Amino acid sequence: MNLSRPLIGMDIGESSIKLSVISKQGSRLSLDYADRLPIQTSKGDLLSESEKMIGLKNLFSKNSFKKNPVVMNYTGNAPVIRYLKLPEMPENELAEAIQWEAKKVISEPLESKIIDYAILRKVSDGGKNTLEIILVAVDKGDVSEGLGIIRRAGVYPALMDVNPLALLKVVALNHSSEIGQDLIFIDIGSSKMEVNISRDGVLRFTRQIGRGGNNLSHLIMEKRSLSFEDAEKIKKEEGFSASELDETIKEEVDRMVLEVQRSIDFYRTQFRDILIKKIILMGGTPLMPGFRDYFETQFDFPVVLENPFSLLTGPTHLLKELNPVSSIWTASIGLALRGKVH
């Protein structure tokens, strides 16, 4: 496949499906198209499969890029992603070595997994060549299930990527001057958060935790005896400024902070010469008023909210519409960037 052609980055998130298209001419990157389909109702319920299928059909029917190749994200159980360093060896021996490495970290039968790997770079150390490799394993059943509804909507993805690697493309583009240091990028959605750490443009650590924005909404519901819809409105419009909810919100965000700190501590045990430059927040939950500011008070380095459009050109009206909620578009933009950044 010619990845220089504009791809449709399709991010199937927890509360919406986002589509974006980015074209490249020389060094210029342009956002040509973006649209989204909400799949969570105001009451917090998810649309049925038939409703999603109809919505996707409608979304693609009005998409002028509908004939472009689609790259979608993997949406099943947490993928196994490991950073490996192996001695340089012939390709057939490397494939066998990857299988042995996979057996070390996967408890289920390997036959139930789709296992892939990519050689990131070759490093010379003490006269010996070492390969830096990223290993990815996902459930075959989850891939089939994820593709099922998409295909029933008449959409046939050409490629699939895992979320951390899609997000890393945005990090590599927007934070290129700091890419040689340890960058923590955290995607916080409705029901889960993902802590990722990269260095030199290489994903070295990823961890998924079952906490997200819905935890905050449910706490607000209980505190004020509200509906999910009203709790969501308070979370998005007031956030930390809702004084009587301040401690309730802080307690839940503190739980998220603790998981990030645990991830950093584990990362420190795995690698030497750690130099953490910043934390980059992504997803919908960090858009809550006061979230980024409070999060930053818990760490000794800067915390920023990602804007995946910051280096893109495009229609002024479209960027103006998307910029206030830019962080929720990070995965879709990362998928659309495949083949355009390294």
Write a structural description.
The chain is α/β, with parallel strands linked by helices and 342 residues long. The protein has ten helices and 13 strands. Strands 3-2-1-4-8 form a five-stranded mixed beta sheet. Strands 11-10-9-12-13 form a five-stranded mixed beta sheet, sandwiched between helices. Strand 1 and strand 2 form a beta hairpin. Helix 4 crosses helix 10, helix 5 packs across helix 6 and helix 5 runs antiparallel to helix 7. The longest helix is centred in the last third of the chain and has 25 residues. It starts with 7 loop residues before the first strand and ends in a 6-residue tail after the last helix. The model has no long low-confidence stretch (mean pLDDT 91).
The arrangement of helices and strands along the chain is EEEHEEHEEHEHEEEHHHEHEHH
Mean pLDDT: 91
Rg (CA only): 20 Å
Residue fraction in strands:
25-35%
**Distance from first to last alpha carbon:** 17 Å
What's the number of helices?
A: 10
Secondary structure category? alpha/beta
The largest sheet has its strands arranged as 3-2-1-4-8
- The total of beta strands comes to 13
Give the fraction of residues assigned to helices: 25-40%
Shape: globular
Largest sheet: 5 strands, mixed
The low-confidence runs, each spanning 5 or more residues with pLDDT under 50, are none
Quick description:
The protein has 10 helices and 13 strands.
